[in-house]
């Protein structure tokens, strides 16, 4: 594996970011216009570069909001990913972590999460927050680079969470490979289920699982 360079992305990088988005997310990838808008809102994007290619990125907004305030939490991905930034930052609301398929299975995801956490600590934030996809709810459809099978038991877990509002066990939630990935790397807590968050994400049944990690505790070795 060639050397991975982590760096702050800016408005000069909009075209390569959009290319990476399409490669990582298929039709769910953000357009150049959307990326420009996110920059204009003051969002931060950290890239992972290999040679001249943007191989992956993590994107987030700093906010004074507390993710535990479920009533105030954005109700859709459109709102979540277009929040204006506010200071002093209590939380980083991360709405995108994506890696080009050919660079997956490396330490890149871990590196991007680590860079984001270091950034959060520098600005004095307490929480890093994510909207976790759960593609095993329906299984990944054609047209995206991922392959995840539908998992009936996981689907029932999500449906029951939606019906009752009662948070399932971490074991039941982490049957999904992506939620397991976040739990494994961040040791995050799962906070609430967001239905109809991104209906276009058919694999996840439109759901997102909102999670948070307290980065104010512990030493340097979070991940
Ligand atoms: C999520 C993503 C950044 C992870 O990067 P990665 O390089 O694959 O991550 P790692 O190799 O460190 O870890 C992969 C692990 O997560 C799981 N995983 C993550 N994404 C997965 C996916 N789309 N399909 C299947 N498993 C996935 C795997 O089970 C794997 O676990 P294992 O090591 O026990 O097999 C990358 O898959 C990606 O860009 N996916 C598309 C965009 C996306 O879904 N982003 C997350 C938004 S919530």
UniProtKB/TrEMBL annotation:
The entry's keywords: Transferase
SUPFAM superfamilies: Acyl-CoA N-acyltransferases (Nat) (SSF55729)
Highest taxon of source: Bacteria
Domain N-acetyltransferase: 4-159
Keyword Membrane listed: no
GO molecular function, one term: acyltransferase activity, transferring groups other than amino-acyl groups
Protein name: N-acetyltransferase
Organism, as annotated: Mesorhizobium hawassense
